[in-house]
């Protein structure tokens, strides 16, 4: 018997994963103690993870291909907690996924929206069409309910409906921050996040306006009991002061939407380095302080 031929056949007929996943927990145990990098790598090397923080089910073809994009700077312990909890979470959901950390170099005010746009564009340069769904994800949010499936739907899907720090669950009716799922088409059709919100606040509200004032995309949110997240407690970051212009920027959002976003991204940043670590891919960037 020609073993090569048999093996080839077996790979070629890998079936789609079942659309029913057994054993999802409604309240998963979260571990908020950051492991060391050595511990993380030792634990996860056994799970079949591939360089760059890529993983997919072994015995079937996943129905969900998602790039997880995380804006980042100087939150090493949060990243370790995130990876330790969320790799197993994504694997339990049988996703075909990859984790991208988009890290902003020190020296400029943090810009979450710009980093997410960069992650969207640069990850596609690396993967081509391997992922058609994008999770835009804060590093300090750990999902509690495994039924909160990281797939895309007909409308933009807001996942962080119920973050532990908000007493009544949802921050406010128009809140779109924290974690949200977009197809490639949905993100492109709203021209992505604005690039021009340096510092804390407002960029997610601008995105909400883009989504709801655009008759293409549409906005949806998972129910409160599904969209539960534990936020890792922390103080305000020194490189991310409250943006004093955010309300004024928001008021003129509709005027800038066409140019301030994916369409205006060229020239606002430089990719300094791309690293493929075992548990994630890092895209290290320097951003133009006025974008
Ligand atoms: N982020 C970084 N580094 C920074 C700033 C932000 O990695 O210096 C990323 C990170 O993924 C974070 C996300 O951007 O989860 C959003 O950060 P944020 O500062 O906008 O929001 P967050 O709710 O903090 O995490 C707001 C300040 C809370 C102060 C509370 C004091 N008790
Ligand atoms: C709003 C901010 C949003 C922010 C949200 C929750 O006020 O960017 O609070 O913030 N909008 C403006 O400032 C215009 S949080 O409590 O998570 O720090 O996401």
Top keywords for this entry?
291 residues, alpha/beta, 9-stranded mixed β-sheet, 3-stranded mixed β-sheet, 26% helix, 20% strand, binds 6-aminohexyl-uridine-C1,5'-diphosphate, binds 2-acetamido-2-deoxy-6-O-sulfo-beta-D-glucopyranose
Compose a concise summary of this entry.
This protein is of the alpha/beta class and 291 residues long.
Layout of strands and helices, then pairs:
Elements: H1 3-12, H2 37-44, E1 54-55, E2 65-72, H3 76-92, E3 96-104, H4 112-127, E4 133-137, E5 141-143, E6 156-158, E7 162-163, E8 179-183, H5 184-189, H6 203-212, E9 219-221, E10 228-231, H7 246-251, H8 253-256, E11 269-276, E12 281-287
Parallel strand pairs: 2-3, 2-4, 3-12, 6-9, 7-10
Antiparallel strand pairs: 1-3, 4-8, 5-10, 6-8, 11-12
The structure holds 6-aminohexyl-uridine-C1,5'-diphosphate and 2-acetamido-2-deoxy-6-O-sulfo-beta-D-glucopyranose.
2-acetamido-2-deoxy-6-O-sulfo-beta-D-glucopyranose (NGS) binds at residues 171, 177, 201-202, 204-205, 246-247, 250.
């Amino acid at each position: 018997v020609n073993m090569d031929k048999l093996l080839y056949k077996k790979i070629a007929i890998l079936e789609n994963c079942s659309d029913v996943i057994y054993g999802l927990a409604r309240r998963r145990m979260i571990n908020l103690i950051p492991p060391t990098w050595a511990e993380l790598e030792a634990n996860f090397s056994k799970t079949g993870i591939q360089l760059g923080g890529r993983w997919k089910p072994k015995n079937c073809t996943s129905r969900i291909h998602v790039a997880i994009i995380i804006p980042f700077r100087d939150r090493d312990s949060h990243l370790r907690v995130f990876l330790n909890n969320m790799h197993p979470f994504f694997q339990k959901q049988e996703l075909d996924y990859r984790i991208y950390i988009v890290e902003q170099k020190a020296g400029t005010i943090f810009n979450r929206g710009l980093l997410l746009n960069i992650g969207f564009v640069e990850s596609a340069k690396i993967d081509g069409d391997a992922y058609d769904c994008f999770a835009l994800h804060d590093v300090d949010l750990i999902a509690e309910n495994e039924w909160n499936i990281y797939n895309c739907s007909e409308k933009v899907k807001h996942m962080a409906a119920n973050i532990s720090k908000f007493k009544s669950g949802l921050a406010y009716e128009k809140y779109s921050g924290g974690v949200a799922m977009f197809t490639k088409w949905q993100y492109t059709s709203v021209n992505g996040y604005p690039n021009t919100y340096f510092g804390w606040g407002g960029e997610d509200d601008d995105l909400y306006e883009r989504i709801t004032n655009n008759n293409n995309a549409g906005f949806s949110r998972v129910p409160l009991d599904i969209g539960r997240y534990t936020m890792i407690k922390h103080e305000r970051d020194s490189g991310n002061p409250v943006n004093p212009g955010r309300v004024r920027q928001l008021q003129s959002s509709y005027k800038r939407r066409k140019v301030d976003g994916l369409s205006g991204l060229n020239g606002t940043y430089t990719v300094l380095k791309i690293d493929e670590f075992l548990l994630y891919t890092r895209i290290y960037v320097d951003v133009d302080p006025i974008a």
